Amino acid sequence: MTRRIAHLDMDAFFASVELLRYPQLKGLPVVIGGGRRKIDEELLARHGERALRFIPVAEFPLLKDYVGRGVITTATYAARHFGVGSAMGLMKAAKLCPQAIVLPVDFDEIRKFSRLFKSTITEISPLVQDRGVDEVYIDFTDVPGGQREGGRVLARLIQKSIFQATGLTCSVGVAPNKLLAKMASEFNKPNGISVVHEADLQTCIWPLACRKINGIGPKAGEKLAKLNIHTIGELAAQDASFLVAHFGKATGTWMHEAAWGRDSSPVVTESEPVSMSRETTFERDLHAVRDKAELGAIFTRLCEQVAADLQRKGYVAKTIGIKLRYDDFRSVTRDQTLEQFTADAPTIRKIAGLCLKRVPLDQRLRLLGVRAATLAKAGETPFHESNTHLAQSERDSAATETIAKDQLF
Ligand SMILES: [Mg+2]
Fold first, then answer.
1. I need a surface site. Which of 35, 178, 356, 396 has the fewest CB within 10 A?
2. Which domains does the chain have, with CATH numbers?
3. Chain centroid to CA 44
């Protein structure tokens, strides 16, 4: 069976998600960037979520009026025609396309649609590797129908299913490996499919710039240009030993292989955790009042362990919960959702403590657990900066609370 690997990339994802709520902006130049602003809150307050689609176009903020240091996350294809694109400063973009409408990123909405399109894929073709919020690799090799027309049939089915589930379009490249699939997904954007076979290397891949190889960044690209190597074909024409001499053994060898379209790295599923928790069964049943010092110490340690788990794996949580098991084996759980994401031990301890106040504590306990849920990848949450400040101020109050532990137990 030939390996068939797909790379699927959502089209202008951040912008397209906003256009679902504001269909009146379809076809117009729209850029997404900058933090949430008062003007957006006012729009929302004035018109309500359901009325968003009826806000007159003239009421939206324009790029020419933007003041600040924000950069573009995504631009619609209409805006890209003016030369604006991802990572460009908003004020610089305003010079190219002053009439573009500018909207802030809504991370909650983005995460919701990210989960939705990924779960749609997994239902059809289960071997999926995350490549960020808006792209994935999919192994078509053993999926029924995955080999038909080189993968085109399955790619079309997935594209259609994603559109039905989300209203969003994507582009798919199918190739013998991840390296070529990643390049292929760009060939027919937006809403395109392109299928690349080994035999297409010379015609489809070799004319492309070296930088199109995922892993050749601006620095390596510049160095290659100085060696008068511009296209992947020119790169393929070099002796591996020449590339090793200039880039070192690992990189040089890899570059040579990549230029020849060779990549055997597998599609690896890393399932997103739903929650992280720690619990402990006591050696003897403990009583909330009589053993409060011991219980308090265990409770704090569990919270610290959950915080450490989150931080080590790069997650933050919005819901903190507890679990208790009484000496008669009855269990209770309580949880509370925070305003902001956190991975901070004192914050988790404080919220878990509030949960604990909501359960009866007149019976002996066998087990105590702390759980963090509603997870997001750290750095992909809104207000991440202010999160740190919150954590700091929470830390102060949590410290006070540790001293006043008696109130908890
Ligand atoms: Mg994309």
1. 396
2. 5-11+109-202 (3.30.70.270), 13-105 (3.40.1170.60), 206-259 (1.10.150.20), 275-407 (3.30.1490.100)
3. 25
Q: What is the pLDDT of residue 39?
A: 82
CB 368, CB 297: distance < 8 Å: no
Catalytic residues: 135
Cβ-Cβ contacts under 8 Å for 65 (sequence gap 6 or more): none
Amino acid 58 reads: A
Residue 237: count of CB within 10 angstroms of its CB? 12
The one-letter amino acid code at 211 reads R
* Burial label, 3 (beta-carbon count in 10 A; 0-12, 13-18, 19+): middle
- Degrees (nearest 5) of the Cα angle 84, 85, 86? 150
CA 168 / ligand 1 centre spacing (Å): 11
pLDDT in tens, 45-65: 888 877 889 999 999 999 999
Compute the distance from residue 8 Cα to the ligand 1 centre, in Å: 8
What b/e string do you get for 39-55 counting C-beta neighbours within 10 Å, with b at 16 or more?
Answer: ebeebeeeeeeeebeeb
